[in-house]
Design brief:
Strand content: 35-45%
Number of helices: 7
Mean pLDDT: 79
Distance between the termini: 21 Å
Largest sheet: 6 strands, antiparallel, barrel
Structural class: mainly beta
CATH topology of the largest domain: Thrombin, subunit H
CATH class of the largest domain: Mainly Beta
Shape: globular
Helix content: 10-25%
Radius of gyration: 21 Å
Strand order of the largest sheet: 11-12-13-16-15-14
CATH architecture of the largest domain: Beta Barrel
């Protein structure tokens, strides 16, 4: 199936659990063109396209292995800046302490739309202005958003901005008179996370059990799954409905946003937690969140192709639009992109990651293979259209 890496998603993505046979490290494929935000209201987890928390993907063993081979008072939890970090204790908190301090800032998001009904996901508040970070697929296509606090208070929210490339969205709470932000969480430094570190995940398990806490261990960093690079792999229990919830260090900082899970066993169980969870690293998320709050969009480069990974690179399936950057540079269907600016494509450095290192307006050199011979092609990148529902 063609993989559109620099085109806006025109259809809604389906996020479900991926059944995995651990002994053979193979992941079964579950794909759909429907969007998912979460668990349908009034049901236990079903295959509704809005089930959130577990990613449907074309993942393989190689995807998982990079080459080489409260309430009235505001709880402001996490290290907010360098000076605070210096002054703060680096001693680990207990799991219960992390959960108790973080939980007031973790919210349940209910999204409603005419096309997809009602679904539920998770998110977390990051400032006193009421900005909430979640996954794009939780809020995509929603006509109305409702946010529930730990104490049961519900408020409406609006979308500030969405990035469908990294699956991150920011919404803002509509805080009425007498309603205060119950707590906030701050981003930590995901570069400091190592395999073996303990982590805590909080989210709305099955869309019904709000603020469910689970703990686990980081299994690996810099994983690539379904086109999302630099993911943190962990074994905290991730349920349908956990999408958008925080992954926390034992210092109480957000070091990831839970986005996907892989289930073990011989079949897909809607009522079982994922055996392996994946989270978008905080250092990536923080930059995107800042840009979404400031501009409503993330300015990304646009090439104008539809393609698919092949053994030696990334093959162009179609060139579109006809007046896009790729077409104007003379790229053709069947060309295989081998590298970008001298860096060869690998599982760890896929085409999308290399492309998104550049800005709209940049002129870059692509190394391509055409009809058995290699050549260099210069392309001036355009700006990727904003995400659409």
């Amino acid at each position: 199936m063609a993989d559109v890496i620099d085109e806006p998603k025109q259809t809604h993505r389906r996020w479900l659990g991926v059944s995995a046979a651990i002994a053979t490290i193979l992941l079964s494929l579950f794909l759909s063109g429907s969007r998912v935000g979460a668990i349908p209201s009034g049901q236990q987890a079903t295959a509704n396209p809005r089930d959130a928390g577990l990613l449907s993907t074309t993942a393989s063993a190689q995807d998982l292995c990079p080459d080489k081979t409260a309430k009235a008072e505001t709880t402001n939890f996490g290290l907010l800046n360098a000076s605070a970090q210096t002054a703060a204790s680096t001693a680990d908190l207990t799991i219960a302490d992390v959960a108790e301090r973080a939980n007031p800032a973790v919210v349940t998001i209910t999204s409603s739309s005419q096309g997809f009904g009602v679904g539920t996901g998770s998110g977390f508040i990051i400032d006193d202005a009421g900005h909430v970070v979640t996954n794009n697929h939780v809020v995509q296509g929603a006509d109305e958003l409702s946010v529930q606090f730990l104490d049961g208070t519900e408020v409406l929210a609006t979308v500030v901005g969405r990035d469908d490339v990294q699956d991150i969205a920011v919404i803002q709470l509509d805080l009425g008179e007498g309603v205060a932000v119950p707590g906030t969480l701050a981003f930590g430094d995901s570069a400091a996370i190592r395999p073996g570190d303990r982590v805590v995940a909080i989210g709305s398990a099955l869309g019904e059990f709000t603020n469910t806490v689970s703990e686990g261990t980081v299994g690996a960093v810099e994983r690539v799954l379904s086109g999302l690079p630099n993911l943190i792999q962990h074994d905290s229990e991730i349920w349908h409905g956990n999408s958008g919830g925080p992954l926390l260090s034992l210092q109480g900082e957000v070091i990831g946003i839970n986005v996907a899970g892989v289930e073990s066993g011989n079949g897909l169980s809607e009522l079982a937690p994922a055996s392996i969870g994946f989270a978008i690293e905080s250092n990536t998320a923080r930059e995107i969140v800042d840009e979404l709050i400031a501009n409503g969009i993330v300015a990304r480069p646009f090439l104008g192709i539809v393609g698919a990974p092949v053994d030696n690179g990334y093959q162009i399936v179609t060139v579109e639009p006809a007046d896009g950057p790729a077409a104007e540079a003379g790229l053709q269907e069947g060309d295989v992109i081998l590298g970008v600016e001298g860096t060869s494509l690998t599982r760890r450095e896929p085409f999308s990651s290399l492309l998104y290192e550049h800005d709209p307006g940049d002129t870059i050199t692509l190394q391509i293979e055409r009809a058995g011979s290699e050549r260099a092609v210069e392309v001036t990148l355009g700006q990727r259209p904003a995400a659409t529902d």
